[in-house]
Design a protein that fits this description.
The protein is mainly alpha-helical. It is 57% helix and 4% strand. It has five helices and two strands, in the order ββααααα. Helix 1 crosses helix 3, helix 2 crosses helix 3 and helix 4 runs antiparallel to helix 5.
Length: 95
């Protein structure tokens, strides 16, 4: 279980959902704020964090740009999305 900024417990069932929840907390934003800044719905962002929606490479990129994450954090988002999509390859840490 992961705790959200609102104090509610949410469970992320995917690597991407866990990483996204971590970055939402780290960058002091909310799902609603992220959704608004991305031009999407809160329900979609919530689905990404809980694993009911899956992130494409474009979605991972949009989230990284919107939050202003570091290059290393952007790689971690892409890596998590790839893992959730079933990619089994071993990527170098600097990929």
């Amino acid at each position: 279980m992961m705790s959200s900024r609102s104090g509610k417990e949410t469970e992320s069932r995917t690597a991407f959902g866990c990483k996204l929840s971590e970055y939402i907390d780290r960058y002091a934003t909310s799902r609603s704020d992220l959704a608004s800044r991305m031009g999407t719905s809160r329900a979609y962002v919530s689905g990404l964090t809980t694993g009911t929606k899956h992130a494409s490479a474009r979605t991972a990129e949009d989230i990284a740009e919107t939050l202003g994450v570091s290059p290393a954090e952007k790689i971690e988002l892409h890596r998590a999305a790839a893992l959730d999509a079933g990619f089994k390859l071993e990527l170098p840490k600097d990929f």
